[in-house]
Amino acid sequence: MRDHEDDHNDYLPARSDVPIMSGMMYKRAQGRSTFGRTNWKKRWFVLHPGELSYWTLEGGRNNPASECKGVIPLSNVYTLERVSLEAFGKPHMIQIVHTSVLYVQCPSREDCDEWLLALRKQCATNRILHAKYHPGFFDGSKWSCCGITSKDFKGCQKSFDYSSLFRKTSKAGADAATAAKTARASSSSGSGMLSPKNGVVTQNQAKMRKASTQSRGDSRSPKASRDFHYVPSVKPIKHASSSPLRQSMNPPSSTASDQQPVIVRVTRVAYV
């Protein structure tokens, strides 16, 4: 089996698009012994739309001293899965299966999750995706995960369900549309309410004003309501006998000569 690094292109055209992801990871060289210190190489991986490349030095094509060691067209990928810890005794590993298998070790679990998600999004529409995969490796006689001796056996475990990516995208789009619709409705409903400062009163401001008015009304005592009360005002008239007109209209009574006539006035009081 040949190493991927034997198939790299001597000339790569310049790219103007920004990489989706990039980072330093270890890859397992192919065509050499399965185990060994020399069979793992440190490479700078760069993910562009539709393409994954790896280089000798950090920076990739932006580093003149860096050499491209491999380019994988993502349209040829049919499996993107994790590798079991028992396979190589190394954590955070993923496998990229196309014409051959590329095993890559990520620095951490978080990096492993991010690389897998980014790669799967790029390969989600591939028509050659396999329904099953091997979490182990083929050692020349059998698969380390299931012991099957046929190298062409497609897999022993169920592969990732790519339809979940489309469901997440659809849900995110629906949530964004709902939020935009709510914002437009709030803006249009509050556009006709004026304020002295900027000419617009929001719904929250209107609700606060209404609640404040209601609280003031509730805090009034029963006497401070808007009902009208009639309070009699008694005011005696002194020296009534001194008025000739009143003497002519109300001649003094012999039985109540010592009493003075009283006029009752009604005052209308309104509590505002």
From TrEMBL:
Highest taxon above the source species: Eukaryota
Bias type Low complexity, positions: 182-192
Keyword terms: Metal-binding, Zinc, Zinc-finger
One GO MF term attached to the UniProt entry: zinc ion binding
Amino acid composition bias (Polar residues), ranges on this chain: 200-216, 240-260
Listed Basic and acidic residues bias regions: 217-229
Region entry Disordered, spans: 182-261
Keyword Transferase carried by entry: no
Record field: transmembrane: none
Gene Ontology biological process terms, A to Z: intracellular signal transduction
Domain PH, residue spans: 18-124
Stored PANTHER family: DUAL ADAPTER FOR PHOSPHOTYROSINE AND 3-PHOSPHOTYROSINE AND 3-PHOSPHOINOSITIDE, TANDEM PH DOMAIN CONTAINING PROTEIN
Name listed for the protein in its UniProt record: PH domain-containing protein
